[in-house]
Amino acid sequence: MSEISGIPRIGDAAPQFTAPSTHGEISLSQYAGKWIVLFSHPADFTPVCTTEIAQFARKQDVFDTLNVQLIGLSIDSIYSHIAWARFIEGELGVPVKFPLIADLSQQVAAKYGMLHPGVSNTATVRAVFIIDPNQVVRALVYYPLTTGRSIDEIIRVVQALQLNSKHALATPEGWHPGDKCIVPAPVTLAGAAERVKSSYEVTDWFFSKTDCPQ
């Protein structure tokens, strides 16, 4: 078993890897220039994981529109991944078009802190890493084995991060595309005075909203 590493932090360079997958050998670096959602699941042929993989697959067109590469991972063999993907397509009617990494060596899982010994030494927790086109970690979230993720929430976070990257705007609680955005607060007294006179939707100098660019 590989040595367990720390969890990459927001703003860190995403740990590089080359690994076998259902699409052949893949490397993180080959997806430079795209957003990446790298996610782990505890095991193939388990019910919660099956619902997640199927929903990722159903939302493939949305991720494609957002220039997102999906990459799944678990500590299962390539044969198990292939059989499971075929089951999902045959029984649930949705093809799995993104690669599933067969991380039997646990090398990728260790680099991303996906192994939590307090839970299991042989199953990855439900981790999600959102990586930007410069291969920097922009968001991460961990769930226990018992709790399925919301794929719509992952899409929402990607959309918010892309908005921030392009326009330097923040997003309020529960934001969805089409909602107003948060304007960064000024950092000087003069800036604060100007802000309250601005054309933004100003609640106070530090709290202003504006229409989000499309």
Structure description:
The chain is 29% helix and 21% strand. The chain has 214 residues and is an alpha+beta fold. It folds into 2 domains: 18-149, Glutaredoxin; 168-211, Antioxidant, Horf6, Chain A, domain 2. The strands form 3 sheets. Strands 5-4-3-6-7 form a 5-stranded mixed sheet. Strand 6 (126-131) and strand 7 (137-143) form a beta hairpin. The longest helix is centred in the last third of the chain and has 17 residues, at 151-167. The model has no long low-confidence stretch (mean pLDDT 94).
Please specify the SSE layout and strand pairing.
Elements: E1 18-19, E2 26-27, E3 35-40, H1 47-58, H2 60-65, E4 68-74, H3 78-92, E5 100-102, H4 107-111, E6 126-131, E7 137-143, H5 151-167, E8 180-183, H6 189-195, E9 201-204, E10 207-211
Parallel strand pairs: 3-4, 4-5
Antiparallel strand pairs: 1-2, 3-6, 6-7, 8-10, 9-10
Order of helices and strands: EEEHHEHEHEEHEHEE
What count of domains describes the coordinates?
2
The CATH superfamily of the largest domain is known as: Glutaredoxin
General form:
elongated
Count of strand segments: 10
**CATH C-level name of the largest domain:** Alpha Beta
> How far apart are the termini?
47 Å
Helical stretch count? 6
- Kindly report the average pLDDT value: 94
